[in-house]
Amino acid sequence: MKGQSARQKVMRLDAQVQAIKQLFIGKPDPKEDQRVWQKTKKDIKNARAQVFRRRYGKG
Q1: Closest Cα partner for 9 from 33, 41, 43, 36?
Q2: DSSP secondary structure string for all residues of 5-44
Q3: How far is it, in rounded angstroms, from Cα 47 to Cα 23?
Q4: Which residues constitute the domain of residue 13?
Q5: For residue 4, what is the DSSP state?
Q6: Contact indicator for 36, 20 with CB cutoff of 8 Å
Q7: What pLDDT does 35 receive?
Q8: pLDDT tens for each residue of 5-54
């Protein structure tokens, strides 16, 4: 069940994003937060891509 774990990872990352967004609401984000946010976004993108590749093969 490899695909399942990847999907769970995506769900977890999505939950993280929601939490981060909650933190950012009504707050100017300092550079550090920006960097964390960029990294998290990249992680999500990678996880999604991984799910996609697993499901439909490479490309």
Answers
A1: 43
A2: HHHHHHHHHHHHHHHHHHHHTTSPPPHHHHHHHHHHHHHH
A3: 23
A4: 2-56
A5: H
A6: yes
A7: 80
A8: 877 888 888 888 777 777 766 665 567 777 877 888 888 888 888 888 88
The predicted pLDDT at position 37 comes to 79
Tokens representing residue 36 in the block: 């964390």
State the total domains in the chain: 1
pLDDT at 29: 59
Helix (H) or strand (E) holding 56: helix 31-56
- Looking at residue 52, what is its pLDDT? 85
User: Angle at the Cα of 22 (from 17 to 24), degrees rounded to 5?
Assistant: 95
What's the pLDDT at 15?
Answer: 82
Residue 14 contacts by C-beta under 8 Å, 6 or more apart in sequence?
A: 44
